[in-house]
């Protein structure tokens, strides 16, 4: 990679962020597409967020990615929001369009791109969780024309989720069905009718726990996805595969949301195949 006076900067902004694999993904893509850019990780305090956003214009950067805890906090400092960022209420990519800063959320698009030969249009989905990643998957599924969506959250999160889903319905006219995760018979009934089951909670990161009881029986044709990629195979995915169902982990979502951001910044397609090989070697 040749750095010179024309090299443009992109960065990921979060706290903590030093462990991020985004610099590896994007710098590999810059090199593979002969784009004169470099991607770094900035670990900043909340008090520095506004100044950091101003620097995107000041240094004529491509833009930035955002992770926790800044995906929502960044919104007041942006000029415009894309449809999905507006629906989700969170931004993971800022693009510098000649000094106009536009916020996007590529998480949902990245998630659906990571699913092999599956489109959500006209299909039914059961979604576990209602945090940031779940919201992006939910909003994208609605924008892509899903037929029916059931969301399951813990009893303690019901009220908060209900008000978010209410706002979502006002904006889109789409009514999401909400249930308590503790209601196992309802969970079984919804899963039995679904084409896609997604774990968008962090349950399973420990390599021990699963968000659903093992007694749940999966329909033959359902695709099962987990947004977690460390461990590479969560207990949830192991359980799905033991019933003979295909399972997809979160590594593809991470790669494809990055590819969407890369294309927004550079107008070029990220060579995901090449990068996917290296990522699998790294995390399997």
Task: Provide structural commentary.
- There is one protein chain.
- With 284 residues, the chain is an alpha/beta fold.
- Helix content is 38%, strand content 19%.
- The strands form 2 sheets. The chain has a 6-stranded mixed sheet with strand order 2-1-3-5-6-4.
- It starts with 7 loop residues before the first strand and ends with a helix.
- The mean pLDDT is 96.
Quick structural gist:
The chain is α/β, with parallel strands linked by helices. Helix content is 38%, strand content 19%.
SSE layout and pairing:
Elements: E1 8-14, H1 22-32, E2 37-43, H2 49-58, E3 63-66, E4 80-81, H3 83-88, E5 93-97, E6 100-104, H4 107-113, E7 124-128, H5 132-143, E8 148-153, H6 158-172, E9 177-180, H7 184-193, E10 196-199, E11 223-226, H8 235-242, E12 247-248, H9 251-266, H10 272-283
Parallel strand pairs: 1-2, 1-3, 4-6, 7-8, 7-10, 8-9, 10-11, 11-12
Antiparallel strand pairs: 3-5, 5-6
Helix pairs in contact: 1-9, 4-5, 4-9, 9-10
The CATH superfamily of the largest domain is: NAD(P)-binding Rossmann-like Domain
The poorly predicted ranges are none
CATH topology of the largest domain: Rossmann fold
Largest sheet: 6 strands, mixed
- Can you write the helix and strand succession as a string? EHEHEEHEEHEHEHEHEEHEHH
List the main descriptive attributes of the protein structure presented here:
single chain; 284 residues; alpha/beta; Rossmann fold; 10 helices
């Amino acid at each position: 990679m040749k750095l010179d006076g024309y090299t443009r900067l992109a960065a990921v902004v979060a706290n903590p962020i030093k462990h991020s694999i985004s610099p590896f993904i994007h710098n590999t893509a810059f090199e593979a597409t002969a784009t004169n850019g470099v991607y770094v990780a900035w670990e900043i305090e909340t008090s520095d967020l506004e100044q950091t956003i101003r620097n995107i214009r000041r240094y004529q950067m491509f833009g930035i990615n955002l992770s926790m805890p800044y995906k929502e906090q960044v919104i007041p400092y942006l000029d415009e929001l894309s449809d999905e960022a507006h629906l989700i209420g969170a931004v993971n990519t800022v693009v510098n369009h000649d000094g106009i800063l536009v916020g996007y959320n590529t998480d949902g698009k990245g998630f659906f791109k990571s699913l092999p030969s599956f489109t959500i249009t006209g299909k039914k989905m059961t979604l576990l969780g209602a945090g940031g990643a779940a919201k992006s998957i939910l909003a994208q599924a609605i924008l892509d024309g899903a037929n029916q969506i059931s969301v399951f959250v813990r009893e303690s999160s019901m009220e908060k989720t209900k008000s978010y889903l209410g706002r979502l319905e006002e904006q889109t006219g789409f009514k999401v069905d909400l249930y308590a995760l503790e209601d196992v018979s309802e969970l079984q009934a919804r899963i039995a009718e679904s084409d896609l089951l997604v774990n968008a909670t962090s349950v399973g990161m420990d390599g021990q726990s699963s968000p659903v009881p093992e007694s749940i029986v999966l329909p033959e044709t359902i695709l099962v996805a987990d947004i977690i990629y460390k461990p590479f195979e969560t207990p949830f995915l192991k359980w799905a595969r033991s019933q003979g169902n295909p399972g997809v982990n979160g590594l593809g979502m991470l790669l494809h949301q990055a590819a969407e951001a890369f294309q927004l910044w550079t107008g070029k397609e990220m060579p995901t195949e090449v990068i996917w090989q290296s990522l699998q070697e790294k995390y399997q």
